[in-house]
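Hi W.,

Here's what went into the run:
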Amino acid sequence: MIQMNNVIKKYPNGVVATNGITIDIRQGEFVYVVGPSGAGKSTFIKLMYREEKATSGDVIVNGINLTTLKQSRIPKMRRQLGIVFQDFKLLPRLTVYENVAFAMEVIEEQPKKIRQRVLEVLELVGLKHKVRMLPSELSGGEQQRVAIARSIVNMPKVVIADEPTGNLDPETSWEIMNIFEEINARGTTIVMATHNREIVNTIRRRVIAIEGGMIARDEYGGDYGYEG
Amino acid sequence: MAMKGRTIRRHFRESFKSLGRNGWMTFASVSAVTVTLLLVGVFAVIMMNLNKVATDLENDVEIRVYIDLIADAEEAKMAEDQLVDEIHSLPEVAEVIYSSKEQELDKLIKDFGEELSLYEQNNPLHNVLYVKAVDPHETANVAKAIDKFDNTYEVKYGEGKVEKLFNFIKISRNVGLVLILGLLFTAMFLISNTIRITIVARRDEIEIMKLVGATNSFVRIPFVLEGMWLGILGSIIPMVAVSVAYYNIYQILLPRLKGQMLQILPNTPLLYQVNGLIITIGILIGVWGSFMSVRKFLKV
Ligand SMILES: Nc1ncnc2c1ncn2[C@@H]1O[C@H](COP(=O)(O)OP(=O)(O)OP(=O)(O)O)[C@@H](O)[C@H]1O
Ligand SMILES: [Mg+2]
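Here's what came out:
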């Protein structure tokens, strides 16, 4: 599903954010990415959808080598992924429905299909009754649920999330985690960078700890492992 | 990959919606376009009229060929016919008009008064051929060539003055061209900058589109269409203003310029040309400005 082979990412300013990462994530896995601030978690995540390009080493997602992928092929590749961000990244002027439908319009789906599928995923995240609202009229947790709905609307094999609960209170974070678990239970791979110790220690899954741009620990059913 | 019809419709719909959503940015862009196109329009009208005046002046340049005085009427006629034929045979010559010395005197009497009519008994003037060159700039050469023919008493074309006039016209045209180009560049700069500001304000939107897998053209087309609408909207006031103003100025000037050497261009086709120019430049600038501005943000 996702393979990295000795991946180094050096930013133009000279910072080496990942320093030789090798990893194999298989279809259907649920993976936490943990580590101190500045360790390289976000960079690791960004390499998976080619927001950042590896300086050296191979990143293979869904069988596509992102390191050698042509710029013009990136859109097609991203349609196979769902991406969720800490700050939701919703379009503020579109309604809940439109925000989710947007990801399907982009790939030129049939309107009928779009309607059906958008309502389906909004039901899954429990927001079917708020389709006409704008993001600004929703709580943070609700906005993140819209973003998750958008990320899975095109049925990706993998959902990549960078601190999806980072802006949410504990209770809301649990609701979001329930949705991720539900998505994972349907067979979708989840890769999630997080600082949430409680979640990692409660919903036990594979934990990849990154420190100083390198893998410090990779453990199935591991714990969060950092103090504070 | 060919774009589907509904996607094209979506792009049009989005570009319209975006004009509304970006309310005052739309207003700012349209205002910028309006101001510059107004300048372009006014300037184009002025330049085209100056060009017309210049061309009229150029075309007014003619050669006067004074024919030798020959006592014998028959001989004179033969000499004149031969000269006319010779002049006609020059490829640069456009027209030759004959004016007898009686006609010449009538003109003088008309211009300078009846006192001159005493010369009617003993006309001292020459018969004259008025010659025009195909290209007015060839006038001097044509005059030189005619001067070599037999039976020419004198060949005049306003030597010195004509060269100065041509020179002046040439410089004016070049200055006008430079001014127009400068204005166009300013317009492009102003408009693309305004459009850039509106797009910078929407970089998040572009970023999100790219992250959900939109292709560059999918992102770009609505922006480019929007730029086109901005150009079209911005052309309306300049087109109407220039047309109405010119129409009225023309109505006022027309009777005053009657019979004058100086003429201005009639409404048609001038206004069609200028309006065509305004809207073309508006669209080009809008499309180009959007295209260039959005390009920067596509690299996500
Ligand atoms: N675009 C960039 N240009 C230059 N350096 C960057 C860039 N993005 C990140 N870095 C640097 O790379 C290193 C890793 O950053 P990264 O964002 O991957 O850390 P992180 O583990 O996600 O941290 P956090 O937990 O705070 O989100 C940091 O030193 C950071 O300053
Ligand atoms: Mg981070």
